[in-house]
Design goal:
The complex is a heterodimer of chains A (783) and B (195).
Chain A (H helix, E strand, L loop, with lengths): L13 H5 L15 E7 L5 E7 L1 H5 L3 E5 L9 E2 L6 E2 L5 E2 L5 E7 L2 H10 L1 E6 L6 H4 L11 E9 L8 E9 L11 E6 L5 E5 L4 H12 L6 E5 L14 H12 L3 E4 L2 H7 L6 E9 L5 E13 L5 H10 L10 E9 L13 H19 L3 H8 L19 H9 L24 E17 L5 E9 L2 E5 L9 H13 L3 E4 L17 H28 L6 E4 L2 E4 L2 E5 L8 E9 L14 E16 L4 E12 L6 H20 L5 E2 L2 E2 L17 E7 L16 H18 L5 E2 L3 H6 L6 E4 L14 E2 L20
Chain B lengths: L4 H4 L2 E8 L2 E8 L4 H8 L18 E5 L6 E4 L12 E3 L13 H8 L9 H14 L5 H8 L10 H18 L4 H10 L8
Parallel strand pairs in B: 1-5
Antiparallel strand pairs in B: 1-2, 3-4, 3-5
Helix pairs in contact in B: 3-6, 4-5
Classes of the chains: A alpha+beta (783), B alpha+beta (195).
The structure holds FE2/S2 (inorganic) cluster (2 copies).
């Protein structure tokens, strides 16, 4: 089918975007609109002893100044624990926490009024070390531990001949979507409020706005505004509640648009973390046992910290069969910026650590890095350390073999390291090659309902598709159009702007929207097709069961009957369908698995490193990914390339630097994201083993490339330099000064797993150990 | 380009030409050209990504005085220096009769657009590059576009789009036989076509 599934259909929103006519949240405006501004805490931790808004209110052009006292509903919100006040509640727990909001006639007046709000703070000592958080007095009535996870499988004391262990560190990464947060709220005649906003999850925002405003959900009307990138950073509420509160308070439309600096302060970052891992293996490289401990700094409020930690801990095993192990982790509260969802959701941290370990094992045993990975590769039917059976295609070997088939880049590098200036000295440039293979869970986990609903209508060959799935740049609009063409034979397709008039589609995150909303659209299209074919059957005296839609034409036994566009003149056929993945269960549940599905990915990075200056140029990244099926080759490649470059950013340059609770680099001058000069050549191939239960066998593809690029690039730099480099981002000084400790390699007497030990996983409620004792076990610290 | 703080907050009214239309605007001296365009004149093609000259989402072509017009970050140009300027935004870059330009067309065809917030800036910078270099090397493309950030695409499709637009332009000037062109086109449609 022209424009159907499997073809490189162009984005339907593309023409408006290349003309500069696509409307983004930042472009919103309304008659009589006021502009909002936020008063943020300059302190990472302080008691608020007084707020005086009189001077701000007195400024001409100021329409409202709100503090927590003015929030009519429930002050507390949050994606998981509801521990965060919409406006500070007597205490501020991170620098940048909203204390008051202002609405005024224009941006300059609003900013002036925000500055005029007099907040008296009594600074408290900030708790910025996540290890200390475990034993420190609670920073919040809910305590300091967002979640502690601990489980074991098989016999965690089993040993092979060699044991390697090290402690790895991952820095804080900013999603750095290019369009800062923006939205426009206005009061509605039903006494409610409407909000057009750039978000990833309309219904979650709606619920949380309902809490603060005290309005029932049916009076909180959300519609997606044009979104300029998201990557997880728009999953939490930021300005949504503030804009709605101000619109209700003033009776006028209120627009917020953050500056880049505010964006850094307001949204959630990727969790920085420390991971200790000990792998033991046989002489032939087979993994005998893995022990791991994780500490993630969740920052001031919970966000998704309780979920992220489980991803990191359970996927420490990597895409490898591990029969014996012990795993533990904490995500904790500090006075650092709050962390939450970012593309990869806890897995890049795990992947960086487990892949460094695999290389260390290979090094100790003198094995080829791909060979050791092949030898341990998970297969369909294996059971994960967390008890779930891999009962769908598990093509780990296939992605590794696929990667191996991609030739290395020929000839010398096109450019020297050192950016446009190419500052490197040719004499000190060394080439390195690194490999990584990862596992990423797809969709929501541990019992969080993963569902979506689609309404599809068809009239004279024109299909209209309506869901609440947020298009954030990933290209769901294209996929929806392709499905409507393939299933319905539609000539033209309109994907309407997502809103809360239809049921929730869940978040555009977790690589899940093709699987959830794509499948809902597929089902709704199939339901409309049934109606269409019934009509055609009646009209032409045929049996509906013998009719099909082929390339825009209704056919009977392969013979054209009528074009879809002329099949039911003037009639609108409509269907609404819901899709929900089979249930998932909490870690340790006997009832079923934690995760909906998995994807596997293998990458090889080739780098040139100036070992004197520490400058790195990534020459090429080759990738082979398990994608189920290729829906749109061009869009898929865009996801792979974009993910690889973001992962490379985390590996080499991106870090939100936090000193005493303050972000020191909240701008693109000092927070570096890869430019076109940094971007490597990407060669992308795929393994297409259809995912059971999914139309066309599709599965999510957005996160794995990032998860794999981080360890692959780091491994390549290790290969070029011979340095252990146990921390990312690897900055020039780490290379030039050789910072970071090497894994400890111990030769051990083999101790097979005791047969009496349960094969089932055992979940402990109590902490077995504290992360602070990692070093005492002989693991060297990272940097 | 700094402005005396005493006059920075003063409002002034001045003329400038935006996308071929003479306009008059009242703004504070200290405002950026980007604010003037977006907030005062409602010209929304240039986007705000960072507001401090690091992302290129706000790129526009500005001509002041007798100098050649040049692509600049509108967020870095103080209104005071835009007096009487000629400003061309993405709205000036379409092809004839409301068609897409070859550069815009190539961005769509090659998948160089995802969220699209960077696209106007990239198309603006790439258009200027192709006016100067008929056949830019990969290095020249990088040098022309490294002031533009894209967080979604990883740049691969953007490079492919610029190269493809350059190729189309050359072919239009010096047409190759149709059969060869068709073959090249069909070779470029599979997933591997990307690299
Ligand atoms: S907004 Fe002007 S360079 Fe970023
Ligand atoms: S397409 Fe999103 S920033 Fe470039």
């Amino acid at each position: 089918m022209t424009g159907g599934v499997g073809t490189s259909v162009r984005r339907p929103d593309g023409p408006a975007k290349v003309r500069g006519e696509f409307s983004y949240a930042g472009d919103l405006a309304a008659e009589g609109m006021l502009v909002g501004s936020t008063v943020r805490s300059p302190h990472p931790h302080a008691r608020i002893t007084g707020i005086d808004t009189a001077a701000a209110r007195a400024i001409s052009g100021v329409h409202a100044v709100l503090t927590s006292a003015d929030v009519p509903g429930d002050l507390y919100f949050g994606l998981t624990l509801r521990d965060e006040p919409a406006l500070a509640d007597g205490v501020v727990r991170y620098a940048g926490e909203p204390v008051a909001v202002v609405a005024a006639v224009d941006a300059a007046t609003a900013r002036r009024a925000a500055r005029a709000v007099a907040v008296e703070y009594e600074p408290l000592p900030p708790l910025t070390d996540p290890q200390q958080s475990l034993t420190a007095p609670p920073l919040h009535p809910d305590g300091n531990v967002y979640r502690h996870v601990s489980y074991s499988c098989g016999d965690p004391d089993a040993r092979g001949v060699v044991t390697v262990e090290n402690t790895y560190r991952i820095g804080m990464q900013d999603p750095a979507f290019l369009a800062p947060e923006a939205g426009l709220a206005w009061p509605t005649p039903d006494g409610g409020v409407a909000l057009d906003v750039a978000t990833q999850w309309l219904h979650s925002d709606q619920t949380q706005i309902g809490w603060a405003t005290g309005l029932p959900p049916e009076k909180v009307h959300l519609r997606l505004a044009g979104v300029g990138g998201a990557f997880g950073g728009r999953e939490d509420v930021t300005l949504q509640t503030h804009a709605c509160l101000l619109a209700l308070a003033t009776g006028r439309p209120v627009k917020f648009e953050y500056t880049r600096e505010e964006s850094f302060l307001a949204h959630r970052q990727r969790h920085p973390g420390t991971i200790w891992l000990r792998h033991s293996a046989d002489a032939d490289g087979r993994i005998v046992c893995v022990e791991g401990r994780v500490l993630l700094d969740g920052g001031a409020y919970a966000s998704t910290s309780p979920v992220v930690i489980t991803n990191t801990v359970t996927l420490l095993q990597g895409p490898y069969r591990v029969d014996n192990g012990r795993f533990e982790g904490w995500s904790v509260r500090t006075n650092n910026p709050s962390c939450g969802a970012m593309r990869g959701f806890g897995v890049p941290q795990a992947a960086f650590a487990h892949e460094a370990q695999l290389d260390a094992l290979a090094g100790a045993l003198g094995m080829d890095p791909l060979e050791i990975r092949l030898r341990n590769a998970l297969q369909r039917g294996d059971v994960a350390t967390f008890g779930q059976r891999f009962d769908a295609p598990t093509p780990v070997r296939e992605v590794i073999e696929g990667l191996r088939a991609i030739p290395l880049p020929a000839g010398p590098a096109r450019r020297a390291p050192g950016g446009v200036g190419r500052a490197a000295e040719p004499g000190s440039v060394r080439r390195g090659i690194g490999y990584a293979v990862t596992i990423k869970n797809l969709a929501f986990s541990e019992g969080h309902v993963d569902e979506s609903t689609a309404e599809v209508s068809l009239c004279d060959g024109h299909a209209t598709v309506h869901t609440a799935c947020a298009e954030v740049g990933q290209g769901f609009v294209t996929v929806a159009e392709q499905v409507a063409r393939t299933v319905l034979g539609a000539t033209t397709v309109e994907v309407t702007q997502p809103d809360t008039l239809i049921a929730s589609a869940g978040s555009t995150s977790a690589s899940r929207q093709t699987m959830a909303s794509g499948t809902a659209v597929h089902r709704a299209c199939a339901a409309v097709r049934v109606r269409l074919l019934a009509q055609v059957a009646r009209r032409h005296g045929l049996d509906a069961a013998g009719l099909t839609v082929v390339d825009g034409t209704v056919c009977a036994a392969g013979r054209p009957v009528t074009p879809v566009a002329a099949a039911a003149p003037g009639q609108t056929l409509r269907a609404t369908e819901h899709f929900q993945h089979p249930a998932t269960y909490p870690l340790g549940s006997a009832e079923g698995g934690m995760y909906v599905a998995f994807s596997f990915s293998a990458q090889r990075a080739v780098v040139d490193v100036d070992v004197e200056l520490g400058l790195v140029s990534v020459v090429q990244v080759a990738s082979c990914q398990d994608v189920g099926t290729v829906i749109n080759p061009t869009q898929l490649l865009g996801q792979i390339e974009g993910g690889i470059v973001q992962g490379m950013g985390l590996a080499l340059m991106e870090e939100v630097v936090v000193a005493d609770g303050l972000i020191t680099n909240p701008d693109f001058q000092d927070y570096l994201i890869p430019t076109i000069v940094d971007a490597p050549e990407v060669v992308s191939t795929y393994v297409t083993d259809p995912e059971p239960g999914m139309p066309h066998g599709w599965k999510g593809a957005g996160e794995p490339p990032l998860c794999t690029a981080v360890p692959a690039v780091a491994a390549a730099v290790r290969d070029a330099t011979g340095l252990p480099l146990p921390a990312v981002p690897i900055k020039p000084e780490h290379v030039a000064l050789g910072l970071g400790a090497a894994p400890t390699v111990t030769w051990t007497t083999p101790r097979p797993a005791a047969p009496s030990r349960a094969v089932n996983i055992v979940v402990d409620e109590e902490a077995r150990d504290a992360p602070g004792t990692m070093a005492e076990e002989g693991a060297p610290g990272g940097r | 380009m700094s402005v005396d703080p005493l006059v920075a907050d003063e409002f002034v009214t001045f003329p400038l030409t935006v996308d071929g239309v003479p306009r008059e605007v009242t703004a504070r001296w200290s405002e950026s050209l980007l604010t003037v365009l977006r907030d005062r004149l409602g010209v929304l093609g240039p986007k705000t990504g960072c507001g401090h000259g690091r992302c290129g989402a706000c790129a526009v072509r500005v001509g002041v005085g007798p100098d050649e017009p040049h692509v600049l970050c509108a967020c870095l140009v103080p209104a005071a220096t835009a007096v009487g300027a000629t400003v061309e935004t993405i709205a000036s870059l379409g092809g004839p009769d409301g068609e897409l330009s070859d550069v815009q067309e190539a961005f769509l065809a090659e998948g160089a657009v995802q969220c699209g917030i960077c696209t106007a800036g990239f198309v603006t910078a790439a258009t200027e590059l192709l006016e100067r270099h008929e056949c830019p090397s990969r290095t020249e493309i990088e040098e022309a576009l490294y002031g533009n950030l894209c967080r979604c695409t990883g740049y691969g499709r953007i490079v492919a789009a610029v190269e493809s637009a350059a190729r189309t332009r050359r072919e239009r000037k010096d047409p190759v036989p149709l059969t060869t062109r068709k073959l090249t086109a069909s070779l470029r449609t599979g997933p591997e076509a990307a690299e």
